[in-house]
Design goal:
This protein has 120 residues and is α+β, with helices and mostly antiparallel strands. It has two helices and five strands. A five-stranded mixed β-sheet has the order 1-2-3-4-5. Strand 2 (36-44) and strand 3 (47-56) form a beta hairpin. The chain is globular.
Length: 120
């Protein structure tokens, strides 16, 4: 497995642990639709939350969350629509971003709730 894939998997695991500690219920991880993948799908109370996790080993070139481009957001929105159709869900949703910087001796995690909104 490449170092980048390992780093990403580790970041996603840290993000899942973070969400569980906050009381979220994890429904899916790495859910795929077409060309998109939703890293984490969870429930926060009655809200269905779609979470994008971005992990880096350094923030020297910018924060990991900056890598969530408009194109990536649109892919996530399409995948979220497909997921909601598959489970017949029509209630409140939210898109979050979790940014993880893994240095050799430390972990820096930022959780951005309501990071962006779909333009349906």
């Amino acid at each position: 497995m490449s170092k980048n894939i390992e780093l990403g998997k580790r970041g996603e695991s840290i993000a899942v642990d973070h969400l569980i500690e906050k009381g979220y219920i994890i429904l899916e991880t790495n859910w795929r639709f077409s060309r998109a993948e939703i890293d984490i799908i969870a429930r926060d109370g009655q809200v269905l939350v779609f979470v994008e996790v971005k992990t880096r080993s350094t923030d020297f070139f910018g924060a990991p969350e900056w890598a969530v481009t408009s194109k990536k957001k649109n892919l996530l929105i399409d995948a979220a629509s497909a997921y909601m159709a598959a489970i017949h869900y029509e209630w409140e949703i939210r898109f979050d971003i979790i940014s993880v910087v893994l240095r050799s001796q430390s972990v820096k995690l930022n959780h951005f709730e309501d990071a962006f909104f779909p333009e349906w």
